[in-house]
Design brief:
2 domains; two-stranded antiparallel sheet; two-stranded antiparallel ribbon; about 50% helix; elongated; RGS_sf
């Protein structure tokens, strides 16, 4: 069986499903509504390594969602898609769990409503008088300034929930937001609020800075981090897509307002990032080790050629020329496997090299899954990693040490099965090439030179 990644026409993926609550019709998005219908859209990727399996935590290292995130950060440089997608899943789930009276404050955003509102002229912007600006100066309702400095949250602080005047906790929408450790200081809230207001103003969208809709503060932060132009984790959206999204968010905080953008982000993750991640994960050695394996493969082939030439030029019988098949077989198989990023020595033990960012990480950081820290922090800063300490440490390692870096056992059985298939393909290709090469040398007469 030939292992390949062949593209098929992707199935339709619903971004939202309708649910009826009494006499009110709402749309909620949960984990089961965003899926690939139980099968992979790429032939060659087993269901055990499908996108949904990875996202839902049904895989083992090195194919977990944390490994997927690390790949997007350090290799593909597009982690914002997965970060936004994970936030949206959690956001839609929390929204569906709100009481009916809170959900009623944020109506469903439909395509028909978007087209109807888009035809309404926005009208000229009303200038703000100096007296009005002075009154709102220093408050959440102050006009956004051109230069807003982002205040990065402390990832180690989890502020307690703020009780109301009666000593009770806040509303369910605000309570879920605080439990995620994202309720920051007031000056940070103003920064996010100002950036969100600037994004609405840049898209020429009317927006009220105060609302009783649930999750309005959280949505404002998402706009400032993922949607606004120049945001630290700005999604790759066209100006038209961004304007439509901001227009929807100016009217409601319902998850359906994100439907179009989530569909674009999910398509990119499913049909581009996920297959590339599986191909990259198949490689069990780092780049120096793979180059070293390719060199060994070329050396084995050259050794087979030299042996065949020497035996042909001698007065030995033709049968001795078959001994050159050993060099051909080992060299060609090693070269084919290395060309696909695999080292046959590591594969024999079902081992893989630790990635550079794993070499210098704590054991707890490699094995744990904490959605509130590091790259899984939805409200974190940029995904830049140039200042991470492992980069300088890895660059100081000499080439020999990199070739023989630390190894770890591959826990995911589906990945081991794929690597076994590639190894068998390499052996099959080596057998064919070896038979042809040895047959050519056996066809020559004796040289009788020695």
């Amino acid at each position: 069986m030939v292992y390949s990644l062949t593209y098929r026409r992707p199935p339709h993926v619903d971004s939202a499903r309708a649910s009826i609550n009494g006499s009110e019709k709402t749309r909620s998005i949960d984990e089961g509504s965003i899926n690939s219908r139980g099968s992979s859209v790429f032939a060659g990727i087993p269901d055990a390594l499908s996108f949904d399996k990875i996202i839902n935590g049904g895989t083992c290292p090195p194919c977990t969602v944390r490994d997927f995130m690390n790949y997007l950060i350090y290799i593909e440089h597009a982690a914002e898609n997965l970060q936004f997608f994970l936030w949206y899943r959690d956001f839609a789930k929390r929204f569906s769990e709100l009481p009916p009276n809170e959900r009623a404050l944020a109506p469903v955003w439909t395509a028909e409503q978007a087209e109807a509102d888009a035809q309404v002229p926005q009208g000229p912007k009303q200038p703000v008088s100096a007296e009005t600006a002075a009154v709102f100066k220093g408050t959440d309702f102050a006009a956004p300034t051109a230069n807003v400095v982002e205040v990065k949250p402390n990832p180690f602080s989890t502020p307690p929930k703020t009780p109301n005047a009666d000593g009770e906790s806040e509303a369910p929408s605000e309570r879920a937001w605080s439990d995620n450790g994202s309720t920051l200081h007031s000056h940070t809230n103003k920064s996010f609020h100002s950036k969100a207001a600037g994004a609405f103003e840049g898209a020429d969208v009317k927006w009220q800075p105060f609302t009783i809709q649930p999750f309005r503060e959280e949505v404002s932060r998402i706009i400032a981090i993922y949607i606004a132009d120049g945001a630290p984790r700005q999604l790759n959206l066209s100006s038209k897509e961004r304007a439509k999204l901001l227009h929807a968010l100016a009217n409601t905080t319902h998850p359906s307002a994100f439907a179009k953008v989530v569909h674009t982000v999910e398509w990119s993750l499913r049909h581009q990032a996920h297959p590339n991640f599986i191909r990259w994960t198949i490689c069990n050695g780092n780049r120096p080790r793979v180059i070293f394996a390719r060199g060994l493969g070329v050396a084995g082939i050259l050794g087979g050629i030299i042996a065949a030439v020497l035996i042909t030029l001698s007065n030995a019988g033709r049968g001795y020329r078959v001994l050159s098949a050993i060099g051909f077989m080992i060299g060609v198989a090693t070269l084919i496997a290395a060309w696909k990023g695999m080292c046959v020595v590591l594969h024999g033990m079902h081992h893989r090299h630790l990635r550079p960012w794993e070499l210098f990480a704590e054991d707890d950081d490699r094995s744990s899954f904490d959605i509130g820290k590091g790259s899984f922090d939805t409200m974190g800063s940029t995904n830049s990693y140039e200042d991470e300490p492992w980069i300088a440490k890895y660059e100081k390692r000499n080439l020999i040490r990199k070739v023989f870096d630390r190894e770890v056992w591959i826990q995911e059985p589906a990945l081991r099965q794929i690597q076994d298939t590639i190894f068998l393909q390499a052996l099959g290709g080596a057998l064919i090439i070896t038979a042809i090469s040895v047959g050519i040398f056996c066809a020559f007469p004796k040289g009788n030179f020695y």
